[in-house]
């Protein structure tokens, strides 16, 4: 193999890797891929404002949404294995999200907001959807 052929092959590998990365990010930030987790998160956080038997009843729609998300992710055109670094970043982001939710809920409760958990969860979900839309716009180059 000539050096020119090797360079061409490596360039092709890099190009295909970027194509698959862009396809993965497009699918991961698609409206369905973002809306289902946002609904699960909203239901879980907002359920703190519900009376005792109804707070646990949120589990059933959440399980149905998780099933729908699993079916949606099975149809992904590109699949990538989760790396250890990505798992740690996801755990840190989840922990940070819960900490922000707790702090904002406490502030909303002390401010006299009715149903503070519902309000804060709606705000956090809206911010998450906005962030995903911005990421998608950056990936696709136009937000299609």
Number of helices in the DSSP assignment: 6
Broad structural category: mainly alpha
CA-atom Rg in angstroms: 20 Å
Overall outline: elongated
Average pLDDT for all residues: 88
- Contiguous low-pLDDT stretches (5 residues minimum) are none
| Cα separation of the termini | 42 Å
Give a quick account of the main beta sheet: strands, pairing sense, barrel closure: none
Number of domains: 1
What letter string, H or E per element, gives the SSE order?
HHHHHH
Secondary structure tally: strands: 0
Q: Give the strand content.
A: under 5%
Percentage of residues in helical conformation: over 70%
Describe this structure in words.
The protein has about 140 residues and is mainly alpha-helical. The chain has one domain (about 5-140). Helix content is about 80%, strand content about 0%. The chain has six helices and no strands. α2 packs antiparallel against α4 (about 60-75), α2 packs antiparallel against α6 (about 115-140) and α5 (about 85-110) packs antiparallel against α6 (about 115-140). The radius of gyration is 20 Å and the shape is elongated. The mean pLDDT is about 90.
